[in-house]
Amino acid sequence: MKILDQDVQGGSALSYAGLLEKIEILRSRLRWASRLERPEIEKLLRQANALRDEVMQLSHKERFVQAASGEGVRVVQSPGERRRALLARSFVFEGTFGDNPRLLDALEVAEKAAPTDLPVLIDGESGTGKELMAKVIHANGSRADKPYISVNCGAIPENLLESELFGHRKGAFTGAVNDRKGKFESAHRGTIFLDEIGELPLAGQVKLLRVLQSHEIQRVGADEAISVDTRIVAATNRNLRKQCEEGSFREDLFYRLSVIHVSLPPLRERKDEIPLLFAYFCDEAAEALKRRPVKMTPRLRDFLVNYPYPGNIRELRNLIYRISCLGGDTAGVEHLPVDIRPQQQSATDALAAGTAASSLAGSGAASLSDAKRAASDEAERAFLERGLREVGGTVTELARRCDMNRSHLQMLLKKHGIHSKDFRHHEVPPQEEKRV
Ligand SMILES: Nc1ncnc2c1ncn2[C@@H]1O[C@H](COP(=O)(O)OP(=O)(O)O)[C@@H](O)[C@H]1O
Ligand SMILES: [Mg+2]
User: Fold this and answer.
1) Which Pfam families does the record associate with it (predicted)?
2) pTM above 0.85, yes or no
């Protein structure tokens, strides 16, 4: 693989955004390199050192002046550029990963909303990153060093809700043995995240509306009001508009809460990001489990790329942690949870997992010749996928390297349902420092 074809030192102007870009080029070279020889490692190290020296030359002031001055002329186009622009403006991602335009839309709205005290409503299916987005909003605002308090409105029994949110006075009800602060008071000067707001009973909605209007709370059993300065971010996986029509959610509260409205797309609508999320979570899991990033058999990868992820990013992340833990060096479909595992195990997976030949019979291969055909198919698929990965998804180049007719190669790709564009060298989106 040709990894050193671009000069990372290129460009004379020293700018924060420019440097970030260079670092990203270096990172993506490392990520996509299949193997590195010593001279190449030396060269990359030299480039990394040069970058570090350039970063050291930038003062704190220069970073921000230059990032801000770039803003006026910015014509934000590609997702990579949009993400870099956010980074250059010192946006805190809190680990939010991905370059999907709809995710970037949400991040850009969050960036604008963060410094204000306006309420934000985040909607999206479970596991799409609503809570993460609430943290992003908190982290990018002036309240970042103040408390962030998360409350799951769906998990609090109705009779305890008021006391949980607003606190109580000693003796207010049986069991109230002491005065107690509620979540709103705990989040004073900070942010309160009201998760699953659609589950809030109507009585609680009235009380919440009052807080939004008066910025005051009353502990259960107390006469006096206490003023609170708490920024509200709410989230729901339900359709609140519909709930308003049905009468289970107050319309006035809905409008109050959704001054800023952020929607997060489900993972199945941003499938293009799945391979990058694999790389991200495989690295993360490897770090957490203190082992090398797990490799996947082609069959497992194929399954995971096409799986619909009803639990969205949470489910994907959990699956990657699971296969990283159970899979040893290479994980196969047998490491998936039973309820989603595909029925038949392929011949090569069985072999790769070191299973005894007897299990081939149970793999769906009725005879030796069937087993041979299955293994040959898997080998063909693995060969094509590895080849495409090495040439960054360019079919013509792969055909040239394998000395194969291009249309024959196209036919083989079609046979296996392989899409060359899935192997194009995506830019690896910048992440927080801990991942650099
Ligand atoms: N864009 C993303 N990049 C990285 N991790 C994400 C992203 N979105 C969600 N996650 C992770 O997925 C899991 C579920 O996210 P969460 O914010 O709890 O979802 P929700 O509140 O919508 O159910 C968390 O571990 C979170 O860190
Ligand atoms: Mg949640």
Assistant:
1) AAA_lid_14, Sigma54_activat
2) no
State the closest ligand 1 atom to the C-alpha of 124, by its place in the atom list counted from 1: 22
Task: Identify the CATH class of 269-423.
Answer: mainly alpha
Looking at residue 13, its pLDDT comes to 46
Better-scored residue on pLDDT, 390 or 289: 289
3-state helix/strand/coil string of the chain: CCCCCCCCCCCCCCCHHHHHHHHHHHHHHHHHCCCCCHHHHHHHHHHHHHHHHHHHHCCHHHHHHHHHHCCCCCCCCCHHHHHHHHHHCCCCCCCCCCCCHHHHHHHHHHHHHCCCCCCEEEECCCCCCHHHHHHHHHHCCCCCCCCEEEEEHHHCCHHHHHHHHHEECCCCCCCCCCCEECHHHHCCCCEEEEECHHHCCHHHHHHHHHHHHHCEECCECCCCCEECCCEEEEEECCCHHHHHHHCCCCHHHHHHHCCEEEECCCHHHCHHHHHHHHHHHHHHHHHHHCCCCCEECHHHHHHHHHCCCCCHHHHHHHHHHHHHHHCCCEECHHHCCCCCCCCCCCHHHHHHCCCCCHHHHCCCCCCHHHHHHHHHHHHHHHHHHHHHHHCCCCHHHHHHHCCCCHHHHHHHHHHCCCCHHHHCCCCCCCCCHHHC
For domain 101-265, give the fold: Rossmann fold (3.40.50)
Domains of the chain by residue range? 16-74, 101-265, 269-423
Task: Quote the ligand 2 centre to 318 CA distance (angstroms).
Answer: 14
Q: Quick one: which ligand is closest to 122's CA?
A: 1
In this predicted model, what pLDDT tens digit does every residue of 72-92 receive, in sequence order?
444 546 888 899 999 999 999
